[in-house]
Amino acid sequence: PDVVAGEIKVAGEKPVTDGFEIEIGKVEVKAGATEAVVPVSINKNPGIQAITLGLDYDSSDIQLKSFDPTDKFAVTEEGEDFGSLEASPDTGYLIWNRIDGLETDMTGEWINLTFTITDAKPGDVYPIKGIDAEASKQDSSLAKIIPTVVAGEIKVIDDEPIADDFEIVIGKVEVEAGATEAVVPVSINKNPG
Question: Angle 121-93-11 (CA atoms, 0-180°, nearest 5)?
Fold first, then answer.
């Protein structure tokens, strides 16, 4: 008998969509800051109905205070609600649902996450990772899509960087009486970058 090659597909498999990503921003705050706002963006949106996203961060250093959708993802041009955002700062999970009939493939800044910072010291870095990310495609199948999640961070910088003898020197010149021009040299010493 002839043998014909077949295929087995696992039902309920969650496909990863090429290029679709959720990007958690990287921000800098000055030493002593008590809050940081971290933007979260959607890139290469394949046309989604809903997104679920969990956040993973060290809650002993930073605490999630609030989730706020950007205007673009909160209301339509006509001022109507674009979608709903259910979020819990206690659990770090959010669920966003788009209202039926509205645009599904928008990209750009999606949500702002506001974190409180316990003790922001220069050089501290607080990583923020996305976990359990899943989206539903807006079509008759409502197929599940797993986006790539790009991690972000809050980085604490010095309030005023130390110059380490950095200086700008304006030179001295002598000109003869009646001169109408003079070239004054300016130099930079010990440039810190």
Answer: 135
